[in-house]
Structures are given as C-alpha cells and as structure tokens.
Amino acid sequence: MAALRAYAGPDTDDPRLRDLVGDLSLRSERFRTLRARHEVSPRRGRVSHLTHPLVGELKLHSNKLSVDGTDGLTLVVCHAEPGSRDAELLDILGSLTATGAERETPHERPQARPRERREE
Asked: What is the pLDDT of residues 61-119, one digit of tens each?
C-alpha cells in the first residue's frame, strides 16, 4: 500500500486510481486495513559495495525516489549507516571536496589503506 501511495504521489484524482482503490476496498479487508494506515515510503533500496580511489571500500545504502512532474525521472539517494565507518569515509570525502583536495593528481594524494573486506 505504501508503494502505491508513493507511486501515485499527489495525483489522487486519477480516475483509474480511484477505480482501482474502490474495487480493492470492496474486495479485500486486508487492503482496507493497509489503506487506513496512510503509509507512504520510498522504494526500498539495496546495499552497494563501491571502491573510491581516495578512501577505499564503501558500503552504501540507496533509495529510489520518483520525481513528480517528470517523465519517469528517478532520484537515487545513497547514504551510509549512521555512525558507521562508511559514514566517516563519506565525511572525509565531503571535506576533501570542500577544500578542493579532489583536484590533486593521484600520485600527489596519500594512498588509502586497503580495508579487510568482511561479508555480512
């Protein structure tokens, strides 16, 4: 239900959507219960393992958000688990970008120490 609400967005006057919701509401008590919760959430993301040339391995979560008023444009937001080593590495990358350190050539940069990869 949350995915349907997120997909429909502000377009609640769409006659096809109203017909679908009406039909499902008549046929399914479970649908009526879920609809009454009024939940809206982004599509669930996944976890990606990336290797950045400055900080090494990163494990980032991502969520996809539909952009209203576009022809199917989707915004992908990547983030690290709060308080994790990956969040610290993203902070380091942010500070490097803010100071212009990303413009250094690879041989001028300190090498990132490889991190032992653990499977979870």
From this structure: 988 887 888 888 888 888 999 999 999 999 998 888 777 765 554 545 455 544 544 44
DSSP state of 68: T
What distance in Å separates the CA atoms of residue 14 and residue 16, rounded to the nearest whole number? 6
> Which residues does 80 contact at the CB level (< 8 Å), separation at least 6?
58, 59, 60, 61, 86, 87, 89, 90
Q: Is residue 58 a contact partner of residue 89, using CB atoms and an 8 Å limit? A: yes
Alpha carbon 89 to its chain centroid, in Å, reads 18
Q: What's the CA gap between 77 and 65, in Å, rounded?
A: 8
Return the amino acid letter for 119: E
- Interatomic CA distance for residues 37 and 45, integer angstroms: 22
Cα–Cα distance list, 46 to 3, 18, 73, 76 (Å): 16, 31, 19, 11
